[in-house]
Automatic annotation (TrEMBL):
The lineage of its organism: Eukaryota, Viridiplantae, Streptophyta, Embryophyta, Tracheophyta. PANTHER family: POLYOL TRANSPORTER 6-RELATED (PTHR23500:SF506), SOLUTE CARRIER FAMILY 2, FACILITATED GLUCOSE TRANSPORTER (PTHR23500). It is a multi-pass membrane protein. This is Polyol transporter 6. One of its GO terms (molecular function) is symporter activity. It comes from Cardamine amara subsp. amara. InterPro entries: MFS_dom, MFS_sugar_transport-like, MFS_trans_sf, PLT1-6, STP/PLT_plant, Sugar/inositol_transpt, Sugar_transporter_CS. SUPFAM superfamilies: MFS general substrate transporter. Belongs to the major facilitator superfamily. Sugar transporter (TC 2.A.1.1) family. The chain crosses the membrane at residues 12-34, 54-73, 85-103, 109-131, 143-167, 173-194, 313-335, 347-365, 372-401, 440-463. One of its GO terms (cellular component) is membrane.
Length: 493
């Protein structure tokens, strides 16, 4: 492996690679902020613009439906113009969407702004983890590739805090400021991202070998490691190992992602089919287990549990953001030590217990009209526990795992397909949760999510191989071992 040259112990994370990942992940802060701030803004939008419950569900979920479009476009776009310029494009779309939402004279304009930002979300959710994974060494890829999800959580927490403080402003000004100020960091990021290097793997796929190798030397811990990574990437890209570094015109090898969908969907090999199933599965279960219901509808859920004042609702919701951020931060250090598989199964197991407790607590609270203090307490603790277990495993691992399992040529567009499923599932939950709660009660909805989590645990137990400590090129072989059988490794090599 590139991280273990001549049996030496892997050294610390490369600072330049860390800095690049942090900058790339800032786009996720903006997305997270939009998610968090909308949970509070919708309370005032409903009152100010006289919207009904269906309009609120559409406004909440439209971001993810438009992100579905953005994610499907992002893979081919990033293969054509590079990972870095795709991040810039995402920032510009965020900025335009935030300006429209901050203006928001009526519901149609607000919806248009939300949709524009949603397309940016689709681009950001695909490209930031891919970029981080492609510049990271194998021993620290879990840390770097999980940074976008950590930044998303920081953004959600920031949105909750802004909700609390801006809720004291006049109603027609408060929610517009909540949504509009995201345009400022979007603009700053669009310019700041120009100082970042391009992904070395993308450069090498374009035949720009010299540039790719120079960047690998910057993001690796030694010249030997950079050389080994360079040779592995050339091999994965189908480039002759004898090609010289200054050979930059390789039209027969240069690729902008042509033919990838055919290899992914129409005629995949058995190994690619298993990769696709696992990647799509992890994206589906990330949201099908109900996290978006708590993040977006926290104030409404806690109101049903017995909290009535807006200040207390927003304060309790801030606690959700604190738990999410704290445990994702913890997960960034555990991913490369414990491994993806063990952490994910532990995470989902805890979620099953927490969702069952939350369903019970909310059922008892609603049946008593919100008068049972212990039911309120159980609901809050269970919601926090659910968010904690999600954030320490399923949350960040989804983005790490789905970007590292695809072969080099298929990575960008394969990851974009996973993000499309992610956003479609997210939209389905966010646009139907209120209706689902009316149909089977809020408590019943969380019992349902608990059942989905049981299915998820079994899915990953049987289908998910461990990838910790392996280079991206080595991971390509994980789904090809033992003939047509998936080799589920219990630990890293």
């Amino acid at each position: 492996m590139a991280d273990q040259i001549s049996g030496e112990k892997p050294v610390g994370v490369n600072r330049f690679a860390l800095q690049c990942s942090i900058v790339a992940s800032i786009v996720a802060i903006i997305f997270g902020y939009d998610t968090g701030v909308m949970s509070g803004a919708m309370v005032f939008i409903e009152e100010d613009l006289k919207t009904n419950e269906v309009q609120i569900e559409v406004l909440t979920g439209i971001l993810n439906l438009c992100a579905l479009v953005g994610s499907l476009l992002a893979g081919r776009t990033s293969d054509m113009i590079g990972r870095r310029y795709t991040i810039i494009l995402a920032s510009i779309l965020f900025m335009l969407g935030s300006i429209l939402m901050g203006w928001g004279p009526n519901y149609p304009v607000l919806l248009t702004g939300r949709c524009t930002a949603g397309v940016g979300v689709g681009f950001a959710l695909m490209v930031a983890p891919v970029y981080s994974a492609e510049i990271a060494t194998a021993s620290h890829r879990g840390l770097l590739a999980s940074l976008p999800h950590l930044c998303t959580s920081l953004g959600i927490l920031l949105g909750y805090l802004v909700n609390y403080f801006f809720s004291k402003l006049p109603m027609h000004i408060g929610w517009r400021l909540m949504l509009g100020i995201a345009a400022v960091p979007s603009l700053v990021l669009a310019f700041g991202i120009l100082k970042m290097p391009e992904s070395p793997r993308w450069l090498i796929m374009q035949g720009r070998l010299k540039e790719g190798k120079e960047i690998l030397e910057l993001v690796s811990n030694s010249p030997e490691e950079a050389e080994l990574r360079y040779q592995e990437i050339k091999l994965a890209a189908g480039i002759d190992a004898k090609c010289e570094d200054d050979v930059v015109k390789m039209e027969n090898k240069k690729t902008h992602g042509e033919g990838v969908w055919k290899e992914l969907i129409l005629r995949p090999t058995p190994a690619v089919r298993r990769v696709l199933l696992t990647a799509i599965g992890i994206h589906f279960f990330q949201h099908a287990t109900g996290i978006e219901a708590v993040l977006l509808y926290g104030p409404k859920i806690f109101k049903k549990a017995g909290i009535t004042t807006k200040d207390k609702l927003f304060l309790v919701t801030i606690g959700v953001g604190v738990m999410k951020t704290t445990f994702i931060f913890t997960a960034t250090f555990l991913l490369d030590k414990i491994g993806r598989r063990k952490l994910l199964l532990t995470s989902i197991g805890g979620m099953i217990v927490a969702l069952t407790m939350l369903g019970f607590g909310l059922t008892m609270a609603q049946n008593s009209g919100g008068k049972l203090v212990w039911a309120l307490f159980l609901s809050i603790v269970s919601a926090y526990t659910f968010v904690a277990f999600f954030s320490v495993g399923l949350g960040p691992i989804t983005w790490v795992y789905s970007t590292e399992v695809f072969p080099l040529k298929l990575r960008a567009q394969g990851a974009s397909l996973g993000v499309a499923v992610n956003r479609l599932t997210n939209a389905s939950i966010s646009m139907s949760f209120l209706s689902l709660s009316r149909a089977i009660t809020t408590g019943g909805a969380f019992f349902l999510f608990g059942g989905v989590a049981v299915v998820a645990w079994n899915f990953f137990f049987f289908l998910m191989p461990e990838t910790r400590g392996k280079s991206l090129e080595e991971i390509e072989t994980l789904f090809q071992r033992d003939g047509d059988k998936v080799r589920v490794e219990k630990g890293a090599a």
